[in-house]
Amino acid sequence: MARPAPSYVCQSCGALSSKWQGRCDACGDWNTLQEEAANAGEAAPKTSLAASKSKGAKLNLVALKGDTAEPPRAISKITEFDRVTGGGLVPGSAILVGGDPGIGKSTILLQVAAKLANEGKVIYVSGEEAIAQVRLRARRLGLDEAPVQLAAATNLRDILSTLEDASPRLVVIDSIQTMWSDVLESAPGTVSQVRACSQELVRYAKRSGATVLLVGHVTKDGQIAGPRVVEHMVDTVLYFEGERGHQFRILRAVKNRFGPTDEIGVFEMTGEGLSEVANPSALFLSSRDEGASGSCVFAGIEGTRPVLVELQALVAPSPLGTPRRAVVGWDTSRLAMVLAVLETRAGLSLAGNDVYLNVAGGLRVNEPAADLAVAAALISSHLNIAVPPQLVFFGEVSLSGTIRRVAQGDARLKEAGKLGFRGAVVPAQPSGEAKRAAKGEPALTTYEVADLNGLLDLLKDGPLGG
Known about the structure:
The protein folds into 3 domains: 7-38, no CATH class; 79-278, Rossmann fold (3-Layer(aba) Sandwich), CATH 3.40.50; 283-460, Ribosomal Protein S5, domain 2 (2-Layer Sandwich), CATH 3.30.230.10. The chain contains 11 helices and 22 strands. The chain has helices at 79-84, 105-116, 131-141, 156-166, 191-208, 229-233, 280-284, 332-345, 371-383, 409-418, 452-460; strands at 7-10, 16-17, 33-36, 94-99, 122-126, 149-152, 170-174, 211-216, 236-241, 248-256, 264-270, 273-276, 295-302, 305-317, 325-328, 353-359, 391-393, 396-397, 403-404, 423-427, 435-437, 445-449. Helix 9 packs across helix 11. It starts with 6 loop residues before the first strand and ends in a 6-residue tail after the last helix. Mean pLDDT is 86; it is low at 40-46 and 432-438.
């Protein structure tokens, strides 16, 4: 039997190549191709399965319509975590949790494991820390009395044998990059090992009905390391966001087969672990610079929850030939577009200025509804006009300079009214009314703008101008 030819696998994207080369053709990264021997068990069959007349079991075909009960969920009683997962952990599901080192992945999973240990057997497998280290963290968090069973192992065969005998309700694997399978010759952390170990653990979850939580390392770009096929195999993908120097942590669902995506849970890092934040809007706005120019409040939607956050902009003359554009918490390309539209449609000269934009609190804003708030912050900083502190903004800016309506406007206004805001700058309504009273208690006065010129006039000479 001929020896199988080796293949070269990119450690960043998982692309295959028949020969080594310095640069991956799929993702463009350099020096990421590593030789991995082909697995004989994965060789393609000489004849197709469709052509062979085997007597295999036939599929059980059913109708699309039918009575299917909702899957029972394990409630961790950590409200923010249950919100992100869609109402609790579904038996037989696999969840991948990613985030920067030290942001709190192991902490939140240990808290979840301790909460659920009283309702069923929970096993926490650590491939990065010794049992003594996990015990010290549990003692610091006040969780050392929880009946969580610990193990420090990296051999996947040993782990699966133990899980088959123990029949746990919840399994935590920290982390998937440290696991290795003895059927592969590659080193732990490579694409082949991560893919094979993830596939076996997902298969175990579906077969046994246990919930498996996998911790994944992230790359320098903030994406979970390893092939993207791992994210396709699991049922839910959660990302931990936030700056390490900030006390806020945001847990975001980017994929969820049992709940809404883009749902967020907000936590605050304390000496006793991660504590829930019931009202994140009030926390994000707790230390605002209300009298400074370049600051305004954006009324956004994260999943199903309205969240108010402060946007800070600074426009300053640049001594450099190429001005800087620095962004924290927003899309850099989106900022470049808003700056171009402000120059072309509103007549603001910003080409020779450094522009800095920051989303306060460590939250990352992804929706285009923040365009109007960003434009207002840039105008405020450039003209040195302070925006009234009791005012919120939301709306999408088009390339023509018009302001487009966004979804769930009533929910945004209602959240702003709860926090004591008295006004909102919103896209113009089809009726063309200049002002109207928003629903909710207390009522908000809304100022409708049709384009960026209307926003500029409103801030300079209108009822909001100084």
